[in-house]
Please model this.
Amino acid sequence: MKMSRSLIAVLMVLVAANWLPAQSRGTAEATIAGKSIKIEYGRPNLQGRQNPQSELAVGDVWRLGMNQATELHSQADLSFGDVQVPAGTYSLFAKKVEADKWHLVINKQTGQWGTQHDPSQDLAEVPLTLKSIGSRVEKFTIEVEKRGDQSGSLSFSWGTSTLQTDFTVQ
Model:
């Protein structure tokens, strides 16, 4: 009987160890023009801190989440203004280009830890719009939103601000 309880306890720990990290991951997805645009990312909590990314120096990149690099999976070619991004899978980062200016960095390397940004693999940088929001977002949140038959937006919200960009599906 004792061995059965010990075995059950070990199994519960193993299940929890595999289940809990998944709870800190998020997925944002939309179907636009019949194509899936999906982002998988880590979801840190502020836990009383100020937005940690606000402490970055100009030129630094942030992994847009936690743990593994944030990944964009797109079945469609996307246009962010003049920037063309072929269908595929990419890692996403935010780069601080000035005190209140950010760019979305689209990187060809995937599967890496979020702090392992290789700038030689950058496909493109897209300007982001920084907006203050009225309520505080405790858990980092990414949204992919359909805005029209061929268009959408990406937003990255944490604390009292959102970084946002629009795109079209080609």
Q: What stands out?
A: The longest strand covers residues 122-146.
